[in-house]
Amino acid sequence: MAIVTLSELLGQSQASGFLRGVVAGGRYANAYLFHGPAGVGKGTAALAFARALLCDRAPGAAPPAAPAAPGLFDAPAPTAAAATPADDACGRCAACAKSAALQHPDLKFLFPVSGEERELDATVAETQAAMRGDPLFVFTYEKAASIRLSLTRDLLRELAYRPFEASRRVVVVRDADRMREDQYSALLKAIEEPGASTVWVLTTARLSRLPATIRSRCQRVRFAPLPEKLVKEFLEQRVGLAAREAGLLAALGGGSLARALAMRDTEPLRLRDDALALLEPALRGDPAALWKATQSFTRFGRSGRETLRRMVEFHALWLRDLLRARYGAPRETLVHRDREAEIRRQAAATDATEIRRRLMVLEETLRAIEGNVTPELALFSGLSRVAGQRLGEGEWPRHATARWDY
Question: How many CB atoms lie within 10 A of CB 329?
């Protein structure tokens, strides 16, 4: 994962322009919240913003150490470039080099991790080493991952002291929605009273999962989905993929570069077909076959969350294609354009209200997967209701919110 500059952000000109204006002005909010779809560059932008704030040329940066007095026969030191106003990291100073390697003492980077607590230090070190070594590194959470409480405690303890080198300390919290409730309480106080030497940068792809108290105290910066053409060009020019493969991954990515990169070493068409095939038993009204298919897909509970999440996302992209096809969108806008005939046939028989209902069922299925519901039960219930079955209706005790009626 290359830590680039703000001017090098891909496809986020509005967010990049706003952040560069903040850097040029030299006046920073207590906390910033970068939100938007997963995989569109929020984490990259957060580290680029931190790099710009810690740059030696940034407005308000700590002055460099005074040089020794020149000798009688020494040439005068050059003075021109230092006074130039900066709105981005220069990429040449010592602070920029340390930030790019995630080794600046005043850059604190928290991110969700999986595994045992006793192996936490090794897991964090391995992840950071992978980020430094792979410019196309993508964060994936195959198992339950969270921002650990011990890391948060150590960070809050360190914030009581002055920065080591720079005039400020920057704390980047990736996927801040993966925290415990008590961590949010401690974080709230730190954001409200960070002092003049600390800037918080939080990122999330699930804005509603963050408490309102945190959201209301951050200045929000919205990130939009990336254009498919831009993702395709990146995959061709920077990753070296063939045009056909790059086009397929860009389409299946659905505006997410990270999703496209994560699927480049897999068989995306096979993954897509396996995910969509799960709905066939539900459409036939065969619950026994659906239960058997979900158990096989989840490997009897051993599949990771990322696999299940990707399956649900394939169904959501299919429904998006149905909506586009129903209202006359051209073939080029369809993600699953290789199955255009089937999409248009289903779109003619499905109205927008029904598509919205199915999308909301998929959203609930994602929340169930994230909430540690048994994978087989979450998929069985979700796919059954997507197919139109009203599980539990008319039975006692009835569900208080009538979840089958969206």
Answer: 14
State the residue range of the domain holding 104: 6-222
- N residues, the chain: 406
pLDDT along the chain (406 residues), means of 10: 85 95 92 95 95 87 56 51 66 92 94 88 92 90 82 88 90 93 86 82 92 93 94 93 87 89 86 90 89 89 81 90 92 87 93 91 87 85 83 52 45
Could you give the number of structural domains in the chain? 2
Residues facing residue 202 across a β-bridge: 33, 173
My answer on whether 270 and 201 are in the same domain is: no
Locate tokens 């299946």: which residue?
252
Burial 374-392 (b: 16+ CB within 10 A, else e): ebbebbbbbbbbbbebeee
Does 185 lie in the same domain as 60?
A: yes
Number of H-type helices and E-type strands within the chain: 17, 5
Q: What pLDDT score does 186 carry?
A: 83
**Model-level pTM?**
0.80
Collect all residues with Cβ–Cβ distance below 8 Å to 167 and sequence separation of at least 6: 60, 61, 62, 197
Alpha helices in 171-227 (DSSP H): 181-192, 212-215
* Cα 406 versus chain centre, distance: 28
Handedness of CA 14, 17, 19, 21 (dihedral sign): negative
Q: What is the CATH number of the domain that holds 132?
A: 3.40.50.300
